[in-house]
Amino acid sequence: MTGHAWLLLATLAAAIGVLVLLINSRLRFHPFVALMVVSIGVALVAGLSTEQIADSVEKGAGDILGNVGITLAFGAMLGRLLADSGATERIARVIVDRAGTRSLPWYMAGAAFVIGIPMFFEVGLIVLLPLIFSVARRLQADGRIKGSAHVYLAAPTIAALCTLHGMVPPHPGPLIGVRGLHADLGTTILVGLICAVPTIVVSGPLYGRWIAPRLAVHPDRELVAQFTGTAPAEDADTSSAADGDARPGAAGAGRTGGVALGWALASVLVPVVLMLLRTVAELALAGSSPVRHVLTFTGEPVIAMFAGFLFALFALGYRSGHAPEKVRESLTGAIKSVAGILLIIAGGGAFNQVLEDTGIGKAVESAATGAHLNLLLLGWLIALVLSFSTGSATVGIVAATGILAPMAGDSGVQNSLLVVAIGAGSIGLNYVNHAGFWLVKESFGMTLGQATKSHTAIQTLVSVCGLLMALLVSVFV
Fold first, then answer.
1. Cα angle 333, 338, 344; round to 5
2. What's the DSSP call for residue 168?
3. 0.70 exceeded by the pTM?
4. Cα-Cα-Cα-Cα dihedral of 392, 154, 168, 316, to 10°?
5. Any idea what the Cα angle at residue 353 is, between residues 44 and 21, rounded to 5°?
6. Is the CB of residue 307 less than 8 Å from the CB of residue 298?
7. 215, 453 Cβ separation under 8 angstroms
8. Would you put residue 182 in left (φ > 0), alpha (ψ -120 to 50) or beta?
9. Higher pLDDT, 100 or 164
10. pLDDT at 260
11. Closest among 168, 170, 171 to 416, alpha carbons compared
12. Mean pLDDT of 220-235
């Protein structure tokens, strides 16, 4: 390596250090602001002209917002329609209706898996809290669980939601990886699901069954009452009241408004099916086939998510009798809730473009090649360190994608596996500087140690299992 290449690597290391410092210091920079500061600083140190810097930042931010940002907005609105209609709660309750005590964690994982396809981790958890609280009350009243019934049910929920959030499109993190690494979207969905299922099994039901007897977790009674529609004093009541809360529709029938379960499931699956059909068409049909052109168009992430959103808008919004004004207000709130994520994505796009334009990406490629590092392991490690250091999984994904993009080569299964490995890395070591950690801790009334043994441990287990699955699949492709 040349002296200039070493200078570029030193610049990257310093940039990452400054990024972590700005986000975690007393200044508490917003990640978007920190990414912009670091992007411009790297460009200046690397010798780009002022005109080149402006073009690089604008191109990087604009390109990624045009590709991922619109898809994310449609996904957020789709998730809000599902939640407001009561459809997500109904999906979950139908799944767990006939479950026995030992099979409940598996059904909870299944419910979280279905709901987690279009929803962010935090949103999905909030949607499922009424179900977790209601069923946990039933289990505690019947005395069928040793330890914490809440952890027994929450562990598979957390595992499924965070696995999908980090490793499987159409979530924004994996979509950023797909775009930056030029991976095939359909292939990434398939590979992500292959890696996700064993990961969820180990990190959710199995770990939850082991850790639940070792934790005494008791959520605030008023919070339980707020989510289940019961009086706080009923928290220790008999099993008959708890059973009533746990039946499908008991707590959310009013909000469900007669929405058929089939419509809700279709709304979730429309975008995913369209994306998968695109991959099938590209593999099975000739390039001149009109059917392939149509499926390629409808399988574009923006178009697929738009189609799913429109389907849900009429099937779960207007068809359910909601006033158009209320629907519009709800959708506006959904967009506001992801505004911060959109800005972080824009800042990450600018950072990635600067890394490309300055040649830092090529320097990293040269160093990694000389050190003979496994690309999947390297991507996982970079995303893990940055996510843990900055408190943002998105920052970990966008930075790792930008750093490793020059090494990814042509689109293929390996690129899809790299997307999964980077996403898995961004999930691990989710601790006190992550919003999700505090959401879980406060929702279940945990101490810091209990939240570490449950939430942090689950997400780190997901991260490690996700990497191992990606490495295992890479052996056979």
1. 155
2. S
3. no
4. -110
5. 60
6. yes
7. yes
8. left
9. 164
10. 64
11. 168
12. 58
